[in-house]
Sequence to fold (150 residues):
Amino acid sequence: MKKFILILMVLFGLIQFIPYSKNHVNPKVMAEPKWDSVKTKELFMRGCADCHSNETKWPWYSNIAPISWSIYHHVEEGREHFNVSMWDIQKKNDGDESAKELEKGEMPLASYLIAHPEARFSKEETQVLIEGLKKTFGEKKEDDEHEHEH
Fold:
């Protein structure tokens, strides 16, 4: 058992040298959407911006593998699909889907909420944010979704 624990500790130490997920330099904010209100922006920045903007706050544990790999992947994927810091610049920017994701409870991710209790919205805050996102980014129509399937 001691040998097993020793091997695990050595492996844990070695994976810290894998260079993936070590670049925590946020890209420059190039452009932002015209928010419908200060409140929408404030709620978005509190619960969504770490993955959907170039203003990610990288916590200390984002430097420790293997959790750092997951965090880095979530940020990269989040920015790829929807990045308010690249508004009207980034070709794919699914802002019109953001309210629907929030309504369905798919965002913020449960794994994010564990470490970021400030990103938990009350029912009232959730409704305010959903309405604000719809006003800011528009809504994806059902017809739009079916067009992408063909």
Observations:
- The chain has a mean pLDDT of 88.
